[in-house]
């Protein structure tokens, strides 16, 4: 049995970020049969405070042997089954920073707990029936959410909005299986099976599976975000564009070409989608060794980006240098940004000639904060054109769930083929059971140890 699956004993971990000189409160969480006993050993609650479930006690954490004071803290008690893990759980709410929480955790480990594995608290919640697998993954998505929409989607999963339709589809498959197996076992006592009705029911299930699969790309966007690279010749205003877009001074801006020597990053949210913007060094041939390294990094950033913003100077128009850069990045989704329009006449902008293979063009005056809204609109248009959009914006499946749904769809299609080939009823049940198993893997009703390892090992320790 794998390490992450070994869920015996009482576990403890720091449940909040540990950052020096930051954070007013730090939490140490303990779960298991010895949780309350450990708390009683190291926590002193003055007066007549009642040690009851779902109460908060005020007091002091002391070393049980030396009685040395470790911290002034609050203690939250949650007795089974009314806790996150459905085990006895206590939480020590200590002062933040590094030392207090680490000392409290060490006391818990010295008095009967062991250090929790990544995701083990949530794993116990799943194994004890507190959560299904989609809800557990929703918790991980909520912790890692990088935009309000990503958080809302994660909350939808946590509330069971994905599990409910999956369970209904699985129940429908089980109903069909029961109909078929009844004919196998009691063929002489029941009317003949209606093949057309079976096929129709399978097609309806497959159609619902397809709808859920359509949310995969949206889910990937919300979880991983969009990587956007701003590329172009030196001094076309790439850094000014980044600063105007991020409303900050992340990049140094001067009139000297080649000021940006490395890739500068900024994290934004556009239309609910996390966007990582990369301001790259101006791409040109140069003898400067440091600038040459920056140019090479710019090329690598552009080749790895989901979207390229090819920026040119409106006052110079499309140049041979722009053409050379375009030939290097044209294989990526691309928006042409004609910058510095505040420095030229309108006629010069409209007469700018560029390759007719470029379909998205935005004009900006980054130094004047003009054109940013139009740029974001163009980005969203490209995303919507290239990514499947869910009819229900609350739902967005992940890669594991998509793989299971894909396998379920394949199995359902194979059932239809088996029926069309007029094979015996026993053959119908084989692939139907495969679809049932694949759907069960999503919620955890059909789950293997390796799947749990893969899911919960990605959690942070303490969750």
TrEMBL record:
GO aspect biological process, one term: tRNA methylation
Subunit structure: Homodimer. Heterotetramer of two MnmE and two MnmG subunits.
Function: Exhibits a very high intrinsic GTPase hydrolysis rate. Involved in the addition of a carboxymethylaminomethyl (cmnm) group at the wobble position (U34) of certain tRNAs, forming tRNA-cmnm(5)s(2)U34.
Coiled coil: none
Protein's name in the database: tRNA modification GTPase MnmE
Keywords: Cytoplasm, GTP-binding, Hydrolase, Magnesium, Metal-binding, Nucleotide-binding, Potassium, tRNA processing
Cofactor(s) the protein needs: K(+)
Organism: Mojavia pulchra JT2-VF2
Family: Belongs to the TRAFAC class TrmE-Era-EngA-EngB-Septin-like GTPase superfamily. TrmE GTPase family.
PROSITE patterns xref list: G_TRME
